[in-house]
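Q: I'm writing up a methods section and want to include an example of the input and output format. Could you take the sequence below and give the corresponding predicted structure tokens, formatted cleanly so I can copy it straight into the document?
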Amino acid sequence: ASSSLIIKMGKGAVRVVVRTRPTANFAHGVLTVKPENASVDVFIKRKESQGLVNNQRTNYSFRFDNVLHNVSQDNVYDDCGRDIVANVMNGYNGTIMAYGQTGAGKTYTMTGGLADYKVRGMVPRAIQQVFSEISARPEQAVTVRISYLEIYNETLFDLLTPGNSANGDDIQILDDAKGAISTRGLTKAVAATEEDALNLLFEGEANRAIGEHQLNKASSRSHCIFTLHIEQRSRVESSERVLQSKLHLVDLAGSERVSKTGSSGVVLKEAMYINRSLSFLEQVVNALTDRGRDHVPFRQSKLTHYMRDSLGGNCKTLMVANIWGEESHIDETISTLQFATRMMKVRTEAVVNVQLDPALLVKKYEREIKELKQELAMHDALAGRAKVQYEEYDEEQRYQLQQQIRQYVDGEIEELPVQNLRHVREFFGQFKVLFHISLAS
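A: Here is the clean output for your methods example:
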């Protein structure tokens, strides 16, 4: 265990960026994307079948921190990833999550094409930036550990366990006294190089639950959280001071309407679990933004429990809201944009996490005590003083002090010889002993 020293840095809102999936069938008459204003407007034609008088809403206008329309993976990472990763390397916790309907490009945003360097997603680019920063900090000893958690049908799976055989019951989500989240039973593999980290990513990707339905032939059927746990200590200054931070890179399963996806059997069951967990995520966000609410239901689902730090906790959080700008998906687009708007109201409080290693602190104090004793011995020698005792007295030495005290009280000697503070304390202790002996007699 290690003691924790946190440096307060104040609160900030979750940053929300909308990314559109490129399509040849963009709904120009319905969806207006304005990157220069970071806004998205939606206009829905009134359905004549509902009559001339109806309460159907036709106009929506949304504003975000940024809107990325038909942009490259490079542009997405520069806007959404680079600052978060830089903050993580400075001791903050960070989270980047992709949210949206199935097929809108969440996995492409987070993972991208692993075989093609140009279309790499957030995760491989974040790995590259982390190890690039490490190489630029030779004065720091940095350890990177990787975990890859999958939440499938409300069960936890370790994607770095060979054969993905870990039972969900073997992984436990734990809250500490300060509300910080940790896990028991989840693999945290050391990655010494960028190549090691990428290999762990590839291994985890191979174990993910992938399904097929009408909207997406390779749909992620689970929430996946790839985490870099980073520990840094100075090679030149006090080594007991450790910076510990983590970066969650979250690919949420896509929300979907079963009527559109044509899901049945196992895939239908998966869809029900996905939609339910996303509904719990919305409930948590609603509770966090409602000032009148005292209780936030983080424990309703594994996803919200595990991401408690990211949702209103000790973290710098960014959400990419992926939308599919075709008219047939306009209902899902509005739903995604409404949730993204609520997410912008969530406040987090990110702090620099400084851990103090107790074992190293003890070694440091022992070293300092030894050096101080050496200095005292040198001072006594220069002052021409006989060997002075600084250690605790034994029984024989305390008996001799009692004899000196008796001689002093009886007037046989004029004063008690005092050598140092330790000597004074031992004299007072023996005065107390003799006083109690006299009372008892």
